[in-house]
User: Which sequence fits this backbone?
């Protein structure tokens, strides 16, 4: 009756919408599930998926992963074989203010989907995890074999908790599982609370840009198309149980990032240097050798090129996104 056998949760969000678009273009039967929550303007999410809806092999489902009755109906109705689980409340700093919603959405939501996967014979589960699970890891670059037992924000702890549930379900029920640890993803449609978005908004307004950690915090920034390619490679490889870092394999400081962005926009930044905030880690840097070897993952986009694409999208959508305040 239908061949919608891939379920993408959080499909209208930043990463999810790019993934659904690529899966749809490549002719996969794709269910794009999202609850359009108000974590940021849901109109942005509607805009994100406007291209996807024209594909006959894609279907939008508005549902909440905490609604087990809705989930049951979805899994009964469609022959779902693969779940790519990206729905979450994302973001480190807000998790210090309201940790409970992270337990609800990020942990309970994940377990709800694992339960459905077990009951309805899902073959593969891919979990969108985060570099934040490495916490304050003094060994760089971060490798999948490093210890991950000291997270420094409730968000990171919820992501790590979900990873453990994925491992347990894979072990108990033989669901093929890949855990993908994304390293700060950027590009068109990036969440408005993230640094590139915030910097661009403040540069355009001529306002001061707060650089926490005195601008010295370093991040491995990964372009969204590279992440999406990594997700699809993991989906196609179908390992029994693996954890992969998906990053760029490079790290740059906030100062350097702002310098590149200011050059692209041709705007001189006004900078406010501030100390580190609770929950921040000094550096993220992915060792991507495992993903390169086992998935054929090959991130290609330079920060200069990726930022230009982000700015192009930002200008195009400015009226939609300009009122988004930082979370
Ligand atoms: N963006 C990054 O840099 C980054 C880095 C590491 C990990 N991740 C992870 O990748 C995933 C996607 O992140 P993103 O940046 O695209 O975030 P996003 O907020 O743009 O996307 C998440 C989507 O999930 C949806 N959602 C939230 N709660 C839901 C619920 N209860 N039911 C159904 N849908 C729900 C939201 O409406 C949103 O569209 C998240 O799991 C996040 O933790 C992101």
Assistant:
């Amino acid at each position: 009756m239908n061949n919608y056998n891939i379920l993408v949760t959080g499909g209208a969000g930043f990463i999810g919408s790019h993934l659904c678009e690529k899966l749809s273009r490549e002719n996969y039967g794709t269910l794009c599930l999202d609850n359009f929550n108000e974590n940021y303007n849901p109109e942005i999410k509607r805009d994100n998926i406007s291209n996807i809806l024209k594909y006959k092999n894609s279907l939008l489902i508005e549902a909440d992963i905490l609604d087990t009755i809705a989930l049951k109906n979805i899994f009964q109705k469609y022959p779902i074989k693969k779940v790519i689980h990206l729905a979450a409340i994302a973001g480190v700093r807000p998790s210090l203010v309201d940790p409970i919603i992270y337990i609800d959405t990020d942990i309970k939501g994940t377990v709800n989907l694992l339960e459905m996967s077990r009951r309805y014979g899902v073959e593969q589960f891919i979990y969108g995890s985060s570099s934040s699970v490495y916490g304050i890891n003094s060994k760089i670059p971060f490798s999948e074999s490093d210890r991950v037992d000291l997270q420094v924000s409730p968000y990171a702890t919820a992501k790590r908790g979900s990873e453990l549930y994925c491992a347990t379900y894979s072990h108990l029920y033989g669901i093929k599982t890949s855990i993908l640890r994304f390293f700060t993803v950027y590009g068109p449609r990036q969440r408005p609370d993230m640094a590139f978005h915030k910097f661009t908004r403040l540069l355009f307004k001529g306002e001061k840009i707060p650089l926490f950690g005195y601008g010295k915090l370093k991040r491995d920034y990964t372009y969204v198309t590279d992440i999406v390619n990594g997700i699809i490679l993991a989906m196609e490889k179908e390992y029994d149980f693996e954890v992969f870092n998906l990053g760029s394999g490079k790290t740059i400081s906030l100062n350097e990032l702002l310098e590149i962005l200011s050059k692209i926009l041709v705007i001189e930044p006004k900078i406010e240097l501030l100390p580190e905030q609770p929950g921040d880690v000094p550096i993220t840097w992915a060792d991507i050798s495992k993903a390169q070897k086992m998935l054929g993952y090959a991130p290609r986009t330079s920060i200069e090129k990726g930022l230009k694409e982000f700015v192009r999208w930002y200008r195009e959508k400015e009226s939609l996104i300009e009122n988004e305040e930082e979370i």
User: Anything to note?
Assistant: The chain has twelve helices and 13 strands. The chain has a mean pLDDT of 95. The chain has two domains: 6-185+223-248+285-299, 195-217+251-281+309-321.
